[in-house]
Design goal:
By secondary structure, this protein is α/β, with parallel strands linked by helices. It has one domain: Rossmann fold, CATH 3.40.50.1010. The chain has seven helices and four strands; from the N terminus they run βααβααααβαβ. It has a four-stranded parallel beta sheet.
């Protein structure tokens, strides 16, 4: 099964000073080796936005080219809005990007790999599944 890897996981893997996330990084590397990683354009943007140094930005941009953007279709935006409204009606707040991730994951039947605790609340209200690693 394919896995949408959220920004925090990318950040842990790209910045070596994140102690305590070694298992997350190892699992991410396994997903890459198994060619199961999905990358959405908004996540690519968030990852690249963390690099203001032009040289580091360029190096990262080149590395990320290995992962093509998973298509986001018009229906995903509508579903993301529906998901947002549904969660808000249950008292659960979230970002537009988070709900877009949920929408694409739902459509594709993929898992979401993240450490963002908000997704624990989303999964109780939306048809999404989170990636659980060993």
């Amino acid at each position: 099964m394919k896995v949408i890897v959220d920004t925090p996981i990318w950040s842990y893997a790209l910045r070596s000073k994140h102690k305590g996330y070694e298992k997350h990084i190892a699992e991410f590397e396994n997903l890459i080796l198994d060619q199961r990683v999905l990358l959405l354009g908004p996540i690519r943007q968030e990852v690249l936005s963390g690099y203001s140094d032009k040289k580091k930005f360029g190096m990262l941009e080149e590395k990320l080219k290995y992962f093509e953007n998973t298509p986001i279709i018009d229906e995903d935006y509508v579903t993301a809005a529906i998901f947002s409204n549904k969660c808000r009606s249950k008292g659960v707040q979230g970002s537009h990007t988070d709900f877009l991730i949920c929408s694409v994951a739902s459509r594709l039947g993929s898992l979401i790999f993240t450490t963002d605790k908000d997704f624990l609340h989303y999964k109780n209200n939306l048809p999404i599944k989170l990636f659980k690693f060993k």
